[in-house]
Amino acid sequence: MVIETKYHGTVDFDEAEKLTFEQGMPGFLEEKSFTLLPLEEDSSFFILQSVQSPSTAFVVTSPFFFFKDYELEIDEASKEALFIEDEKDVEVYVILTVTDPFNASTANLQGPVIINRKQKTGKQLILSGTDYITKHRLWEEA
């Protein structure tokens, strides 16, 4: 399938890799189909790209790469909605707010994106009762 993307231009991707966000993303409820593209080869950053809208794309990364002590608990309703049977099928990403300079960019640890790679489903969780906020700096000094 060929799609237009925000950061990579025209991309041909395997439709079997399409991720379904049944409830869309907060603020983008109509966006239900995404694909995960590496920002660059061998990069720890990815683009969560809408299959429907070229302009809807989020820069994401694994929170565990930058925040070694990051912890979250996926509630039972989300596990059911994502058809999670085994935690090894789960990938966790956080959406970045990219700034100039890049080393001042922040991560939304309060709203992780959960992907079940086996079932090709995804959902952004909004965590409550934690100290996580929407703008954690990736690096200490910018």
TrEMBL record:
Which locations, inside or outside the cell, does it occupy?
Cytoplasm
One of the GO biological process terms: bacterial-type flagellum assembly
Chief location of this protein within or outside the cell:
cytoplasm
Q: Does the keyword Cytoplasm feature in the UniProt annotation?
A: yes
What does the UniProt function comment say about this protein? Acts as an anti-CsrA protein, binds CsrA and prevents it from repressing translation of its target genes, one of which is flagellin. Binds to flagellin and participates in the assembly of the flagellum.
Q: Give the family, as the similarity comment puts it.
A: Belongs to the FliW family.
- Alphabetical list of PANTHER family matching this protein: FLAGELLAR ASSEMBLY FACTOR FLIW
Question: What name goes with this protein?
Answer: Flagellar assembly factor FliW
Q: What is the lineage of its organism?
A: Bacteria, Bacillati, Bacillota, Bacilli, Bacillales
